[in-house]
Amino acid sequence: MDRRYRGTPHGLRDTDCGRAPSGAHDCRALGVHLGGFVELSIAWRRPAAMMALAALAAPAFAEDERPVTATVGGRLHLDFATFDNDNRGTPNKDDTEIRRAWLDVSGKFFVVDYKLEADFSGDRVEAKDVYLSRSFGDAGRLTVGQFKQYFSLDDRTGSNYGSFLERGNAGTTLAPLYRLGASWQANPGDFTWAASVYSLESIDAWQVKGRAAGGRVTWAPAPGEGDVLHLGLSLAREAYDNPGGNGTPGLKIRPRPAGHLSDESRLTLVDFSAGRDTDVNKWSLEYAQVRGPLSWQGEFSGATFDDGAQRGGVMAAYGMLSWFVTGESRAYDRKTGRFARVKNIRHKAGAFEVALRYDQMWGAQHLDGQPDLRRGSTEGWTLGGNWYLRDNLRFMLNVIESRNRDRLAGTTVDRTRAVTGRLQSPQMMLSILGFGMVITFMYLIMSKRLSPLVALITIPIIFALIGGFAAGIDEMMLEGIKKIAPTGVMLMFAILYFGVMIDAGLFDPLVRIILRFVKGDPMKIVLGTAVLAMLISLDGDGSTTYMITVSAMLPLYQRLGMNALNMTCVTILAGGVMNLTPWGGPTARAATALHVDPADVFVPLIPSMVIACAGVLLLAWYLGMKERRRLGVVTLPKGGSWMDNSVSDDGNTLPTVEDAEDTKRPRLLWVNLALTVALMSALIIGVLPMPVLFMIGFAIALVINYPNLAEQRRRVVSHAGSVLSVVALIFAAGIFTGILNNTGMVEAMSHSFLAIIPDSWGPYLAVITAVASMPFTFFMSNDAFYFGVLPILSEAAGNYGITPVEMARASLAGQPVHLLSPLVPSTYLLVGLAKVEFADHQKFTLKWAIAISLLLMIGGLLFGLYPFTT
């Protein structure tokens, strides 16, 4: 045999095309396509590879203004199939699968474009597009690496944009798929063309040996929206080395007419697995037209096989008709000669498409000079329905009738009916990555397998690398740290300021008053904690609430041996309710995002806040009663001196604490009180940024109370541990939020949630928003929720008569849960001051936080702040 080329069609596999093991031949060969996009291939040679790499480094015709960019994408396809098999052949089993779970990162690195893409759906990660590319202006583009070869309109149209779950028989068996090589593509006028030389190996299927060349050309005269004529031609020449011999995979054409999961409905049309070098020639003619909502498309493809002892051939043809019932049109990409994402969905309910396809493939094989030893055909009808809820979310349903025939025996060997479906979301992979990162973080810290500090740093980095963000991860982390730096500085000097005030004894009179009131009763102490936290929370700043409350109350909890988690629980819940004041943050964000008056949001909210506060007090009573039953009531000495010892009725003695009178400054009590009141007033008014105010306040307090330099150093050193533990967590959280936000995970998480809300739930969007605010403000920052998710929800709710101000009120219900998020810096301050574990605090408080949030929501419904339904 004259062996100029040897190879196996990329996609001609002994096993499932698309589910084959890495060693299987991909049943598709590289070919030259002509039809709006010309793709030609030449035999792969080392000199050609060196020339291609050299061209990548050549001067560019034009440079992007940004030298380095990175964009993350992906796709998730969840499939199911149910079969009605006749009694011929082995029946297929009903099944489900994650068909595709792709993640990719693409962008520019100075003058070179790049793309890294992998599929995580199988037992192992499989590489897809992995290449470098360089534009040379109008002359074209050079691509080097592993990429999908250029063959047929059906195969070149992405799996996100086809009208059916599966491509036709030729697209799944003859097209070369992903191969290592080099290509040149250009788009002159109404034409596109591409030519490539490639190896029959891929990154994963390295056992397949051989060389190939192929190309494609297309012509689409002045395509416009709803008006497209497409003609194309694809060609390929492949030379396989010893298919089926020496451990290499065999070369077979075995289509799946009943869908990807129909492994038992496959007929072998040709089989060249005898270990002899095999030449394969492929071709495909393309035609498609779009006229408004209607489109029709067809291709006629074929391939010949020759291993020197036997010859074979296959031919395939399909025709399809598509109609968008809702009036949209199939989108066409003239630069690449293929169909693209449906745009401009016209109706709130989405776009609906119905499509019908007939597909047939037939093949024959014979020894040289002998009659056919194999001749068969497969055919199938597919009726498809597509519901595009969004341009990036689609439900697909296909009904398939297929038949395989042995033409030599004149019999039907298999007839199968199938119903297959798919949920498709390109953004869902990024959303899953984001939720996976937060859930993994939460699991590791709540199970105490990692400390919060270590988890905040390592977990986002690991997930960023998994998602392919290595190129820009440094900038993401730095941006996150920069955004959170003012908070870190504020907390550092706030801890130092209140530490000085505690040392000087500013809060001692308050503690004595509380002690005289509570009289050693744990129930009254927990209630007093809640009341104190509510009053201090009126300033709108959680950090000061936590510092003052813990400073005043922690000694009491320690003296009586009470569980400090009770203190952190009621303190954070009181702050979560009282922080809804217009100057507190969440209310201002919601009002700003929806362009409404903060007063219109807050004032009607007061009755439901009263109900929630009552819930917090009731919880404090319940937790206090539990502590009273556990510890009893301790009798304190007259005069309320908490430094003295006393004996309770049952003979228990209060534990003593170390005397620290050398740091007390009782003569400066009123000076320190005036300074603190002035500082709090300046914070509320906003005289200067909060970090600056605390820095100034700390400097003044330190000099007034401890003018001696040595004593100043001792005061700073005594609080260094608290400062370091809290501020380190804050900056670590900057890495977490920087990666979560800048990778696009937060946006993808938001869109994934919005995409699953059916339109029939529209009248309930206010309640849905109130409920959703709990998990969403837990998994993402307030800024991301109020400025990213809430405006979209509000816009949708407006169609059902729900006003923006009602949506703003509903969105605030989840704030008690939000404060438990690992993304809230002040929470680390609370647990650090109280000397409890973050995970223990979350587990203890979460159920109560949900209960208080539900009280806020119920109060809002009772007082008509937003409707249950419209």
Structure summary:
The chain is 39% helix and 26% strand. With 870 residues, it is an alpha+beta fold. Strand 7 and strand 8 form a beta hairpin.
Give the helices and strands, then pairings.
Elements: E1 10-11, E2 27-28, E3 32-34, H1 46-56, E4 71-85, E5 95-109, E6 112-119, E7 126-135, E8 141-148, H2 153-156, H3 169-173, E9 178-186, E10 191-199, E11 210-219, E12 227-240, E13 252-253, E14 270-271, E15 278-291, E16 294-306, E17 310-324, E18 331-333, E19 338-340, E20 351-367, E21 372-390, E22 393-406, E23 411-425, H4 428-446, H5 452-466, H6 473-504, H7 508-518, H8 522-536, H9 542-560, H10 564-578, H11 586-594, H12 598-602, H13 606-631, H14 669-685, H15 690-705, H16 709-718, H17 720-742, H18 745-755, H19 765-779, H20 782-798, H21 804-811, H22 815-818, H23 825-834, H24 838-862
Parallel strand pairs: 3-11
Antiparallel strand pairs: 1-2, 3-12, 4-5, 4-23, 5-6, 6-7, 7-8, 8-9, 9-10, 10-11, 11-12, 12-15, 13-14, 15-16, 16-17, 17-20, 18-19, 20-21, 21-22, 22-23
Keywords: Membrane, Transmembrane, Transmembrane helix, Transport
InterPro entries: Cit_transptr-like_dom, Citrate_transporter, Porin_dom_sf, Porin_O/P
Transmembrane segments: 428-446, 452-472, 560-581, 601-623, 668-686, 692-709, 721-741, 761-779, 848-868
Written account of the structure:
With about 850 residues, the chain is α+β, with helices and mostly antiparallel strands. Helix content is about 40%, strand content about 25%. The strands form four sheets. It has a 17-stranded mixed sheet that branches. A two-stranded antiparallel ribbon has the order 1-2. Strands 13-14 form a two-stranded antiparallel ribbon. The longest helix has about 30 residues, at about 475-505.
